[in-house]
Amino acid sequence: MRTIKYPSRETWEQLTQRPQMDISRLTEVVQGVLDDVRQHGDEAVVRYEEKFDHVCLKSLRVSEEEMAEAETLVSDDLKEALLIAHANIHRFHSAQAFEGVRTETQLGVTCWQKSVPIERVGLYIPGGTAPLFSTVLMLATPAKIAGCKEIVLCTPPNRQGKVHPAILVAARIAGVSKIFKAGGVQAIGAMAYGTESVPKVYKIFGPGNQYVMAAKQQVSLHDAAIDMPAGPSEVCVIADATSRADFVAADLLSQAEHGTDSQAVLITTSEQLLHDVECEVSKQLEQLPRKEIARQSLDNSMMILVSSTEEAISLSNVYAPEHLIICTADYEALAAKVVNAGSVFLGQYACESAGDYASGTNHTLPTHGYALAYNGVNLDSYCRKVTFQHLTEEGIRSIGKAVEVMAENEELMGHKNAMTLRVNDVNKNQ
After folding, report:
1. Is 234 a catalytic residue?
2. 404 is catalytic
3. Which of 66, 257, 322, 352 is flagged as catalytic?
4. Which is nearest to 59 in space by CA: 70, 41, 46?
5. If we measure between CA atoms, which residue out of 22, 3, 53 comes closest to residue 265?
6. Which segments in the chain show pLDDT lower than 70?
7. For residues 64 and 77, what is the distance between their CA atoms, to the nearest angstrom?
8. How much is the pLDDT for 130?
C-alpha cells in the first residue's frame, strides 16, 4: 500500500481518483453479444455459455429436482446462517415501507403518492471466484417485501452444468420465482430482451465484472432500468490512536480479497497506528487463501496520515467510499458529518463483514465515487412512486387562474384551454 503523509487539500481530488479503466474496447464485444441474444434468444445464450463458461446446457432453467438436491448439499450450519441473515435483512428493509400522505395544497386540491412495486425484476449473481449467495438474499429479500410479482435470477453454472447449491437455497429462502443458468453479458441480454426461457424484466440488479457492468449500462439506455452504475469494490477506514491495528488490517484485507481491482484506503491521525497496520497487513495477508488477489488489490490501495479526525472525515467525503468504517474514539461525532458514503460502520466491532452478510443492511452499494449521487439498494429500489391529484370545483377556483396565466405565458394555448373550459363551467354553476 502506498503511504501518503499530510496531503494538502489541493491534492485531495487527485488523490481520491480511482484507477480509470478504458471500457471502450469492451463496447464492441458487449454489443455484439447483446445483439446476438436479442436476435437468437435461448440458442445464443446456450452458445455463449459453452464458449465462456465451458458448459453444454440442455436447459437454461434450474429444475425443481436441482432445487431439492441443493437442500441436501448445504450444511445445517450454513442454512441456519442464511436464515438468520435473511431475517435481519427482512426486518431492516420492512421498516423502510413508504406511507403516502394526502396533502391539500390549496382548498379543493388534494395530492398524494402511492408506492407501486416493479412487477418483474432481474437479479444477476456472479459465479467467478466466489459464490455470492449473500447477494441473493440482499437483492431478492427487498424485492419480495416490495411485492414484485416475478423475481428472475441468472447466475453462471459450473462446468458440470450445476449452480452452487448455496445460491439455490438462498434463492428459495428469499422467494425467487425463477432461476436460470446464464452468466456474463448473455445473462444481462436475456433479462433485458427476454428469450424463449428467460422473461424480460423491467429492472436489473446485481454486481459483476467489467463486461457485466458494461452490458448493464448499455441495456439501460433503451431496454431495462438498472440498480446503479458500479465499479470495483472499495473500503475506507478512518482510525486514530485508540483503534486496534489488527482489526483495521483485517478490514482492509477483507476488502482487498474481493478482487484484484478492489481498493482499500486507511485514513488515520496516528503515525504509530499506520506503522502497526502495515505490519499487521503483511502478517495477516499470508494467512489468506486469496492472498494473491488481495496482494494485487493492495497495489491500488493507500494509507493516508492526516492531522485530525475532522480532516479525515472531510477527506472521506471527497473520496465517497462504498464502505466507510469509522473506528475512532469520536466515531459518533464523525458519523454526524458523513455526507458521501454507501454504508457506514461505526466503532471497533462494526466490521464491513457484518453488513456484507447478516446485520440487515444491504451490501449492494454505489462504488467508484458514485456515492456522491447514488444510494445503495433499498426497498424503494424495487418500487415506483405514482402521484395522484384530485380537484373539486373549489380547487378550480383556487388554482385555475394561475394555470391559465402560466400556460398562456409559455404559449401553450391547448393547456390554457383545458383549464379555461373548467373555469367557465365552475363559474356558470355559481
Report:
1. no
2. no
3. 322
4. 46
5. 3
6. 21-23, 128-129
7. 23
8. 73
